[in-house]
Amino acid sequence: MFNFAIRQKANRLQAPRCLPSGLLTSRGVGHGKKQGKRVSKPQHVATAAWYYSLDLAVETGMSTKMLTGSFVALITPFNRDGSVDFAAFRTLLKFQEDQGTSAVLIMGSTGETSMLSPEEKKQIIVETAKMKTGHMPIFFGCTGNNTESTVANVRFAKDNGADGAILAAPAYICAPESDIERFFLDVADATDLPLGIYNNPPRVKSDLHWDHLLRIFKHPNYVVHKESTARVGQVAQVLAAKPNVSVMCCDSPNLGLVVPTMSFGGQGTANMTGNIAPAELATISTPWTSYVEADNFKTAYLKLLPLLHFTYSAINPVAVKSLMKVLGLPSGDLRKPLSNLDGEALAKGIRIVKELGLDKQYGYKVAPISAVAA
User: What does each C-alpha distance from 194 to 57, 220, 295, 365 come to in angstroms?
Assistant: First the structure.
């Protein structure tokens, strides 16, 4: 089952600020005469959103598909010696694909990206891109600590098989919103890789108002927006403007954006609880086209609330990764200085999984809590 919906809209063919020479997209005209292609067409039509030929957009005068559904931010699995576990990555990617996840993000905050070395980040992109099946796009977190390093990261990801990149504002510098808007546009001008914006002020301090976001979304390379504020009005204003991007939100029940985002017409959630309950998050993240989806959403969301609260009970990804390890998923430990949950804090997560029947549904083999520290 795939969660890509074809959203064909009239092509405005507006000129972006700048595009690589020779590239013509469905939402903007490049500077050259030749039509460009991102990558070759896949065998499976359902994922054409990220593999389509740009010739089709030119001929039809229509825009391309939009990503919908569950966009899971994957953890980074580690071996006992602290190295990246690529065999575990393959297992986790297959698990997500088999359970209906629409796309995954590797090296987001859930992936402990700030604690990975530059060499590890490049190796992760190279090796996990080789694991693609063509049925589930893989995006990579590519934010650097300045514009130039971010452009370099995005170009490396594109050259090594990425389907897209997710960008947040550079952390720690606390730049004003006007500078962050220019940052996102400058990076988009430097690539034709599909990009997404993660507006995440709790992590990076900078917080983009919807006016900034809507200006950025006029750039043809932006295809996804993830909102992680607690402002329902922000999501409403973005969706009301009908930008040609997939509008998604964080699955934190504390922020409270999931219900309004989906009810206002959002395209899904960009979540991390899908690491443990991917099928449930796929249901929660299905766009509402009738009462059926809304009713399925209500049932799944209310049922999963205890787990959602647990996965956000500690700084991401402490709770989710600790629980994954005790459930037998190949996650490994957190990278220091972070440490795994233990005792009652972890026991609560185990009880929730059992009460929801997730252990039986997914075949989780719950280990003793003492095993998490082993």
Answer: 15, 9, 32, 38
- Considering its fold, how many domains does the chain have in total? 3
Domain boundary among 312, 329, 353: 312
- Same domain as 325, residue 305: no
C-alpha to C-alpha distances, 8 to 24, 65, 231, 265, 355, nearest whole angstrom: 17, 7, 29, 16, 42
Assess whether 301 carries a catalytic annotation.
Answer: no
Cα(124)–Cα(161) distance, rounded to whole angstroms?
11
Other Cβ atoms within 10 Å of 90 Cβ, number = 16
226 is catalytic: yes
**pLDDT one-digit tens code per residue, 149-191:** 999 999 999 999 999 999 999 988 888 899 999 999 999 999 9
Residues 104 and 198 in one domain: yes
**Structural domain of 264:** 67-312
Q: Which of 13-17, 97-101, 220-224 has the lowest mean pLDDT?
A: 13-17
The whole-angstrom separation of Cα 47 and Cα 41 is 9
CA 278 to chain centre: 13
| Amino acid, single-letter form, for residue 211 | D
305 and 326 housed in the same domain: no
Is pLDDT at 374 greater than 90 in this prediction? no
- Name the catalytic one among 51, 198, 222, 362: 198
Q: What is the mean pLDDT of residues 194-221?
A: 86
Q: What is the pLDDT of residues 5-64, one digit of tens each?
A: 323 333 333 333 433 333 333 333 233 333 333 333 333 333 333 333 223 222 323 345
| CA nearest neighbour of 157 among 106, 204, 86 | 106
Residue 232: count of CB within 10 angstroms of its CB = 17
Whether residue 267 is found in the same domain as residue 119:
yes
- Options 65, 158, 226, 325, the catalytic residue: 226
Residues 155 and 231 in one domain: yes
C-alpha–C-alpha distance, residues 326 and 115, integer Å: 22
Are 85 and 34 in the same domain?
no
pLDDT band at 228 (very low <50, low <70, confident <90, very high): confident
